[in-house]
Amino acid sequence: MSQKQTLTVQDRHDDRGDIARIRLAAPAGEALPEFTAGAHLDIYLPDVDMWRQYSLCSDPAETGFYEIGVLKDPNSKGGSTAVHRLAVPGATFDIEGPRNHFPLAEDAAFSVLLGGGIGVTPMIAMAKRLHALGKDFVLHYCTRSQDVTAFADELAAAPFAENVVFHFDDQAPEQRLDLSRDLPGADADTHLYVCGPQGFMDWVIETAESAGHATPNVHREYFSADVDLTGDSFEVECAASGITVTVGANDTIAKALAKEGIKIEVKCEEGVCGTCITDVLDGEIEHRDQFLTDDEREDGDQICACCSRGRGKLVLDI
């Protein structure tokens, strides 16, 4: 069960690359619930009426504040621009979490952290935790240019600075990320973590798995995804409520059910956060999400109702 709290913006630092580093604390200064590396917060943005997820980049050992990094993306649905507008010192936000769908395998012999752009945020928390544990790791941080590389000063001054490798697209080819050079050989005790733009992630994941890294050892977290919500119409039967609806070609399961008074909680609307996971009793699923694992998809008993679809008819346990 996610913890609900109202937190106050304690501090804000506008870093390179139009990234706001925001510290959130309890209004009375009490200790915050602990979190594990890889966790995120769900933040409600009332003026645009949406929830958005932001990875924690602060030290998991820190209980006085949570820190997130938010890229102002003019091409987003409005969440990031709302955060940049609203997150001034003293402002309050309703929060759920921390929740962790991207946990760190702390017993791994070697960890490779690969962050593309703002996708570095969970990697920073992971690096802090791995350093505290005395574990062997490397953090590859990829950006378009040094001029847009947020967190650079902090990472350069960190006690694990020698474990951090910066890669800038506008510099010499040998300085850029080269997976044939920078990925270690496949090993059961080596774990990879990747977060960033979808193209970057797909490239890293496909290359790693083609090189023999086992899928369970290649951990991934999408902070956004290009998802096609369209498709042929299909029916959804709600076994518990006895209602059947038709999901149109440009509709989603969650929206179609909401029109009939059946609410499925939705936050990301892109199939990346898992909030809307719903049990499926029968029917063929057309998965469009980036949340479920391949094994979970093969089981055929769960669906992301914000984006995935069915063929013919689905029966949901709702």
UniProtKB/TrEMBL annotation:
FAD-binding FR-type domain: residues covered: 2-105
SUPFAM superfamilies xrefs: 2Fe-2S ferredoxin-like (SSF54292), Ferredoxin reductase-like, C-terminal NADP-linked domain (SSF52343), Riboflavin synthase domain-like (SSF63380)
Keywords: 2Fe-2S, Flavoprotein, Iron, Iron-sulfur, Metal-binding, Oxidoreductase
CDD domains with a match to the protein in the record: fer2 (cd00207), PDR_like (cd06185)
GO molecular function terms listed in the Swiss-Prot or TrEMBL record: 2 iron, 2 sulfur cluster binding; metal ion binding; oxidoreductase activity
Source organism of this protein record: Tritonibacter aquimaris
Gene3D superfamilies named among the record's database cross-references: 3.10.20.30, Nucleotide-binding domain of ferredoxin-NADP reductase (FNR) module (3.40.50.80), Translation factors (2.40.30.10)
InterPro entries given in the database record: 2Fe-2S_ferredoxin-like_sf, 2Fe-2S_ferredoxin-type, 2Fe2S_fd_BS, Beta-grasp_dom_sf, Cbr1-like_FAD-bd_dom, FAD-bd_FR_type, FNR_nucleotide-bd, MRET
Pfam families cross-referenced by the UniProt entry: FAD_binding_6, Fer2, NAD_binding_1
Name of the protein described by the UniProt record: 2Fe-2S iron-sulfur cluster binding domain-containing protein
Domain 2Fe-2S ferredoxin-type: 225-318
